[in-house]
Amino acid sequence: MNGELYVKASDVVRTLGGDGTFLADANRFSYIAPSAVPDAVKKVSPATVGIIGKPIGNSSSSDNRYNLAHGTGVIVQSNGLIITNAHVVKEMSQLIVVTADGKQYKGTTTHIDEESDLALVKIEAEGLPTAEFAKSSELVVGETVVAIGTPISFALRNSVSVGVVSGMDRSLHSTYRLIQTDAAINPGNSGGALVNLKGEIIGINSLKLSAAGVDGLGFAIPSDTVQYVLKHFLTYGYVKHPGLGLDVEESWAAIVGLPTDEPLRVSRIHPGTSAASAGIKEGDVLYSIGDKNLKSIVDLNEYLKQYLPGDKITLTLQSGGDLVQKEITLVEIKTN
């Protein structure tokens, strides 16, 4: 059968052949058709754009017409609204957006959120192809993914690389969790799409978290976070990041990525906040918010995404040797 090799086993087996790839266990077969990657690319590539402009603040070469920076973006609304990385457009002027069909548009950065490293760029256009989002929470490690972007040179727009989901819930000192992938992500891919084989966006690639000279170690902002930020951009004009009105520090084990049950510790109280008036003190141990136990700062940030500033929550803390509950009102964290 076209050179396929079928291997029967009670555990997991891999079957490779000219017609595709089978992954199987005792109860389940999953077939990756040879057209799966091209079909996914065909669906998403028309909504992928290149973004190029002049770096801000480099006065020594401001007159050099070749002194340009570039990245990638994904069209999320047919009227020309594009999601990209904040670090792509934060220090870029005279933006030009080039769509997959080669048309050029003047771009304007309309929204930016450095905490999530996401931004919106607007072009004056109608009827553009848009990308669809999947739930990144449904991803599994080992799943095949496709990265689409503008690596190294602007002439390489809509380049494609293929890999797998290497890991989930990575933090790397970022505010929110990240997807790890071994799909090739190079300079210029930032802001581009990480796509599943259904042609749905599962993440926005963020190269700034990938060290130079390291192979197969890229990271993307999960689509769930992208949609959270996008909703705030369109509803409020910016991201309303909620905060407790206090700073916490995580355990050494959490910092280095070891599994831990050690809770967060209050390191500073912000004057004039509900946390201060509730009598929470430095050195108190934060065990949970509501019924959720939190072990890291990233866990806390992810949990708070379901709330808005002004919402009330209940903290369970150890204070002065006693286990106490304190109701506080969330404050708004100004980031930009």
TrEMBL record:
Residues 242-321 form the PDZ domain. GO terms for molecular function: serine-type endopeptidase activity. Transmembrane segments: none annotated. The keyword Protease applies. SMART domains: PDZ (SM00228). One of its GO terms (biological process) is proteolysis. Keywords: Hydrolase, Protease, Serine protease. CDD domains: cpPDZ_Deg_HtrA-like. Belongs to the peptidase S1C family. This is PDZ domain-containing protein. It comes from Paenibacillus mucilaginosus 3016.
